[in-house]
Structure formats: C-alpha cells, structure tokens
Amino acid sequence: MSAELLSNLALFVLALLVGFEVISKIPATLHTPMMSGANSIHGVVLVGAILVAAVADDPLAYVLTFVAAAFAAMNVVGGYVVTDRMLEMFKARPRPAAAVADAAPTEDGAAR
Amino acid sequence: MSGEALPLLDTLVRVVYLGAAVTFVLGLHLMRSPATARRGNLLSASGMAAAVLATVVLLLAGDGDHGRVVPLAGVALLAGTVVGSLAGLVGARRVQMTAMPQLVSVFNAVGGGAAAVVAIVDFQRLHGDGALTAGVSVPVVLDVVIGAVTFSGSLVAAGKLQGWVSGAPIAFPGSRLASIVSAAVAVVGGVVVIASPSTWLLWVVVLAALAFGVLMVLPIGGADMPVVVSLLNAFTGLAVAMAGFVVDNQIMIIAGALVGASGAILTQQMAEAMNRSVLSIMVGGFGTGDAVAGGDAAAGPQGLEVRRVGAEDVAIQLAYARKVIIVPGYGLAAAQAQRECGELGQLLTDRGITVYYAVHPVAGRMPGHMNVLLAEADVPYPQLLEMDEVNPEFETADVALVVGANDVTNPAARRPGNAISGMPILDVDHARSIVVIKRSLGHGYAGLDNELYGDPKTSMLLADAKKGLAQILAGVKSYVG
C-alpha cells in the first residue's frame, strides 16, 4: 500500500468521524435544509469531472466527461440554490407587514 | 513519505482544498440553528466555488501529473457544466416547497451518477495504459456499484414521491429473486474486475447495479421514501469519496465522507422516529402507499362513530381558547394550505392566544419538511415545537387542531399488536378538545382506523384542508371583528 493511499484513508476515516460529530447535533427543524445542504456538498464531484476531463482522449471519454460534468453541475448548483431558498424562509418573526403592527404598541408605550 | 516538494501550483490548490473542507464543516456547524443556517450554507457554497475554480486553474495549467487538456474534452466539460448548472438552477428556482423531497432526490441521483461516471472514465484510461493497481480498482468498483445503485434508486424514489411511480410497494413474481441476482452479479462482477480488470465487465457491473437500484426501491412504500432518500444521500457521499480515491483528490474524499456520515445519522434518526429499523424499511412492503394523492372521499370508517362540526363552530372554539396547538400533516401540504394555516396562527396569536405548531419528526415527506413548508408561510420558528417539547403542552391546550395528519396522532400506537405499535406519536388526545380537519375518513399510510376520530372530545370537519382553514379563518375574523 502506498503512502499516498494510506494518508487518503486517514483523511477519509477522520472526515467520517467529523461528519458524525457535527451532524448529530442538528435540530429536526432544520433536517430538510441540512440534508439538502449535505446533498450539495457531494456536488464536489464536479472537481472529479474536471480532473477526468484532463485525461479524456477518445470519443467515449468525451461523452462521459460531458455526462459527469452535467450531472455534477446540476447537483452542486441546484443543491446550493434550493438550500438557500429554503433557509431564506426561516424567520424568527413574521415579515414586515405584521412586524410593523407588532412594533406599534411599543412606540406608543415609549411616547407616553 | 518521499519528502519531494510539490510544484507551487499544486501546493496552492491543496491549500484551497483545505480551506474548502473547513468551510464545509463550519457550514454544517452553522446549520444547527435557524438564525445562522443561511450563512452556513453560503459559506459552504463559497468554499465549493473556490475548490472548483482552483481545479479549473490546475486543468488549464496542465501540470505534469494530469497532462494538458484535449480541446474536445474541454468543450465537453464546459458544455456539460453549463447544461447541468442551468438545469439545476431552473429546478431549484421553480420547485414548489411541497415537491422539495423529489428535487433533492433527483440532485442526489445525478451526484451518484456523476461519481460513477468519473470512476468509469479513469478506469478506462488506466486500463488502456496498463497502469491499474488494486489501490485504484477497488475504489473504482465500490464507486461504480454505489453510484449506480444511488442513481437509479434515487430516480425511482423521486418518481414515487412525485406520483409518477405508484407509492404502493411494487412487487412482481420473481422480483425478490431478480434483485438478489442483480446484486450478486454486481458483487461477483466487481470482485472479478478487481482481480482481472476488463472494461466490458465493468459495464456489466454498472448495468447490474442500476437494475438493483430500481429493484431495491420499488417494493418500498411511499411513506418510507424519506428514509430511503436519506440513505441514498449517504450512499452518494460514499461514492464521491471513492471517486476521490480513484482520481487521488483529497477534497472529494473529505466532502464525500462528511456527507456519508451525515446521511447515515439522519437515516438512523428518521427510522427511529418511525420506530422501525433501517433494515426492515429496506426489505420493504410496508404501508398502502399514498393515501393523500388517492384522495377518494368514499372510504368510510369501520365501526368508528365520529362527531362532525361546521367551520363556524370551530372558529368560535378557537377564538375563545387560551392555548391552541396546531398539528399539521402532509394533508396540509398536499392541499397547499400552509399559507391559510400560517394566517390563522397569526390571527390567533394577535388575539393573545398562545399558539404552537406540533411537528412530528416524520410529518411531511422528509425530516423537517413540514418546518420548511410552515416557514414558507411566515410562521415564526419559535412557534414550531418538536414532538418531545410539545407533548407535555397538550395537557393544557384548549384546542388541538389537527390538519391533515393521521397516523402520527393515532393513540393505537401506544398499544402493541398493530402496524404502528410503538411509533412515537403526538399526544393530541390529551388536549381538552380536538378538532380534526380531514378530507375523508380514509386511512393513513399504515391502513389503520385512527382511534382519535372516535374520541368523544374530537369533532371532525370534513373538508379539504385549504377550504376548511379558509372558512375557519373567515369565521374567526367575523368574531374578532
């Protein structure tokens, strides 16, 4: 076994452990965005698509490179955008119209 | 270690990868609270962008390890990236929040597919050069098998969630045998590929793994799809990590392992919430499929006497309550009634009534899905309570308003001997009075009568969730005046 492979294995195992630690503390409220967020992280496979493009040198490899790039880009771009869209909606208070109504009594109180 | 220094560019790229790995971990860390979650996701996205850009620079520089990119391959890469990004962007922007689980499942499918394809391309090149070692062929086979299973399995899961494939468990004569055979072909073929590499055999393994993915998910009921999607998400992570071993790329190994671990934890938590083991879910055959989409109002109860009420009565009950707990289920999402629900909650809150939303871990179609739907309807997240927090609150609640939830409120789960025995439920029956809005008296996924409906404290408003809530809303407004 090469030194390179061994250090890669060490990375793999340690990253698994970090994953268990970080994820197990996330509240159920955020499970869907979290799953979607983790889903976009494995879109890092786009890096792999770029690396194989560097070694592709026959028609089949070109087609496969195209497929890998398309799949990976869809995963990573779609994943992050949709996660952001979900998280954007989580608000501690209702949006402006209602927030103004909430704020009004306090201002009255201050004026008195 | 050889101690040989890396070229400067390689060193820089690796430093960028390290930074990206840190943003992924910190990003997930920030997702532990709704207040910082969005920042976490943006941080993770910027790390991702840096890692991808660094790799592009490496490709353009064409260092000794990878050679200079052939123009046609560059075009294929660029075209693929553009097409994929547009597809992802359009999907992510257009999707309705109720269809979120399907979309995540599709993104997961293509991620697994990409990981498998990356391994195939590198395998063919190394095999052509006669440069394959076990250190590469083992992760190639693992990557191809896991990636292909995930690809086809996630697409079937998305089809079931969307209703394109029946949500009921699908089995045909010999389906068990077929899935065992396809798994055996994939495993044995994989071992042979490692022992004596051959490209055509690798393609056989790919096809067998694709077939197994389909056959694995088909017999699993629609209600269990969230667990399946979550498990397949973990699979993709592992496939990507394996692809990282194949192309010797550290950021892919780290990110893949992170996702593999997170998916495994989530899958476990969801299975626990349903009181079932992951194994029994994957063996399949549970539930009757998508009762909501079926939606026939004719299905009558057997021997359950229910008390019906009109929307006006419910409105009075709510308007003069001190504490109301709303229990949303998938029926709410299916009827697109989250906005009406949020408005009603807001109206009651403005009136000084304490309002909570009781969210069961498996409400909706994936863990936390219901929270996303309610957040979309502007419900403030401090009002969203998880099962353990909200259960003691039912004792003192004047009204529990159940909207389109079924099995997760069925007291039968506390007794042994039925399909949902032992499943943790919301203690809705402990409330002083209960109102259930439901389109019909049909069954939930588990195919059981809900004993809650026969409770003398319960009144039923038989209506579509959206119309029912709109009527109640109008009623409360007229009393509040």
Automatic annotation (TrEMBL), chain A:
It comes from Cellulomonas cellasea DSM 20118. It catalyses: NAD(+) + NADPH + H(+)(in) = NADH + NADP(+) + H(+)(out). InterPro entries: NADP_transhyd_a_C (IPR024605). Its EC number is 7.1.1.1. GO terms for cellular component: plasma membrane. The transhydrogenation between NADH and NADP is coupled to respiration and ATP hydrolysis and functions as a proton pump across the membrane. It is found in: Cell inner membrane. This is proton-translocating NAD(P)(+) transhydrogenase. It is a multi-pass membrane protein. Keywords: Cell inner membrane, Cell membrane, Membrane, NAD, NADP, Translocase, Transmembrane, Transmembrane helix. Its main location: membrane. Signal peptide: none annotated. Pfam families: PNTB_4TM. The chain crosses the membrane at residues 6-24, 36-56, 62-83. One of its GO terms (molecular function) is proton-translocating NAD(P)+ transhydrogenase activity. The keyword Cell inner membrane applies. Residues 9-91 form the NAD(P) transhydrogenase alpha subunit C-terminal domain. GO terms for biological process: NADPH regeneration. It is an enzyme of class 7 (translocase).
TrEMBL record, chain B:
GO terms for cellular component: plasma membrane. The chain crosses the membrane at residues 12-30, 42-62, 68-91, 103-121, 133-156, 177-194, 200-220, 227-245, 251-267. It catalyses: NAD(+) + NADPH + H(+)(in) = NADH + NADP(+) + H(+)(out). It is found in: Cell inner membrane. Keywords: Cell inner membrane, Cell membrane, Membrane, NAD, NADP, Translocase, Transmembrane, Transmembrane helix. Belongs to the PNT beta subunit family. This is NAD(P) transhydrogenase subunit beta. It comes from Cellulomonas cellasea DSM 20118.
